[in-house]
Design goal:
Layout (H helix, E strand, L loop, with lengths): L2 E3 L2 H32 L1 H12 L3 H4 L5 H7 L5 H21 L4 E6 L2 E9 L2 E5 L8 H14 L3 E5 L5 H10 L3 E3 L3 H10 L9 E3 L4 H10 L4 E2 L7 E5 L5 H12 L6 E6 L2 H17 L4 H8 L2 E4 L3 H11 L3 E4 L3 H5 L7 E4 L5 H6 L25 E9 L1 H17 L3 H8 L3
Parallel strand pairs: 1-11, 4-5, 4-7, 5-6, 7-8, 9-10, 9-12, 10-11, 12-13
Antiparallel strand pairs: 2-3, 3-14
Length: about 425
Amino acid sequence: MRILKLTPRIEKSLLARRAQQDSEAQRVASEIVADVRKRGDAALFAWTKKLDDTDLVREGVWITKAEIRAAERQVGSEFVNAIQRAAKNVRSVAEKQLPRAWSCESEPGVKISQAVSPIEAIGCYIPGGHFSLVSTLVMTAVPAQVAGVPRIVAVCAKPNAALRAAAHVLGITEIARIGGAQAIAALAYGTTSIPRVEKIFGPGNKYVTAAKQIVSGDCAIDLPAGPTEAIVLAAQGNARWIAADLLAQAEHAQDAGSFFVTTSRALAQQVQREVLWQLGELPFGMAHFSTKLAGAILVADSLEHACEFVNRFAPEHLSLPENSTELLRKIHSAGTIFIGPWGAQPLGDYATGSNHVLPTGGWARKRGGLSAADFVKCMSVQTITRNGFRQLADTVETLAESEGLLAHRNAVRVRR
């Protein structure tokens, strides 16, 4: 992992590289989405065979209910207990997040209320390369269940026994063997095999993220949750723990961006040594690539400068292991923030209850992570009595005339 001085040129380069990656993914995803939208199952099956080496004709699109039930016998009780514990915590947080019905009287005789209704059908995208990310099923399905979503469809390119067992524990019965941009297109537009859903949830690689953005004009999406990003910001701290957090996120993919931002060159060098040592202890994998290609250790002139960079970058994960109270006041853009030296980032990835589906690519400047509120529709209901009409009639006629909307004015006037 390189040590770089955090200069305007370096910052510009890091932000530009992220934008360039999105552009490339957009081109590839556009081709796949358009093909699936046009040819349906034929394109879905062809892309799945080409990209995931899965023959859907032979293996079937859907995991059977028998396979889902049987999977729990293939995993240990320790795994089942872990899923139950994580789901309990996610459920507790989701219940706090869920919007509530309310009502108020804005004028005498004018009552405004909010009705909360679940989205009818959702798709949960579960990344599944070498391993299926069972934690993502928990993070997407459990809030949906809290919200009362009646149909939850999960898709995963390689739904292994752990994912099937987790689905059984959670009561999820629909899992399709599809992934990538082709899965996003199938969920968004529907095919003979895959039902169309109203909204798609879950993180994925840059192609999945691009596909979600492409279909978002026709099918709602949760948020752009693409390649993992992590920043640890500290001027002092335990170099071994800092390096471990960086590598935890770096192992997701070759383009996962892990950054240590500090004002201490001495600590930067300690963390660099720890990263190299810990990489040597890990099986050869994605982290060996991403730490060289996408990650870096950035030395800033001051903590103020470091915080400004963090806010512009708006990382998916941010750790403040030391001086967190002071630093937290200066941070206003991050998907999730871990406070203190014991806040190991994987705790949030799996089991604290906070959702791990988080904005990437700078989207944390615009919105937060996934919550139960994303699974419902809040509808405003307006009840207006005769007295309420009289209270507002003059005001509405005046405003309608000012905009030249005489039919608006007349809809009030005819009731006088």
